Amino acid sequence: MDELDVRILKLLEENGRLSHEEIGKLLHISRPSVHQRVGKLEKSGVIKGYRGIVDWSKLDQKIKVMISVKVVSQGFKEAAEQIIRIQIPGVSIIECQRLAGEWCMLLKVRVTSPEELTLLLDEILRIPDVKETSTTFILTTIYEDGLKGV
What we know:
The protein has 150 residues and is of the alpha+beta class. 37% of the residues lie in helices and 25% in strands. The chain has 5 helices and 6 strands; from the N terminus they run αααβαββαβββ. The chain has helices spanning 3-14, 20-27, 31-43, 76-84, 114-126, and strands at residues 63-71, 91-98, 105-111, 130-138, 143-144, 147-148. The strands form 2 sheets. Strands 2-3-1-4 form a 4-stranded antiparallel β-sheet. The protein has a two-stranded antiparallel sheet with strand order 5-6. The longest helix has 13 residues, at 31-43. The chain is elongated.
């Protein structure tokens, strides 16, 4: 991977809908060259996929929270699998990160109301290996998914 590949990746990260022709024009290289490079980046797993970035504040899930979770260390994997399988209408678990430090896991979650958040916390705390949770409400997102003010 060279500097040109990195520039292609940055463009795609900013706008995954850019065509190979548009990328070629921006970087002053041919469309076939872009196509070949993107293909190699996809095949090698550097580009994992493409997705739409949704502005959830325009929909029902306007409340975003971070939930820190303490888990019995031997049961981490099972507890994480149980947490990410929780299905509650109005609740979306966006991310689940394993941490080093006082807390074992960090969840990024969107909910439609405090009531749904309460249901989620109750479900998490029913998992046998979960010892404790701490919830922080996100007031404003300054930078997310490579975009400012999402």
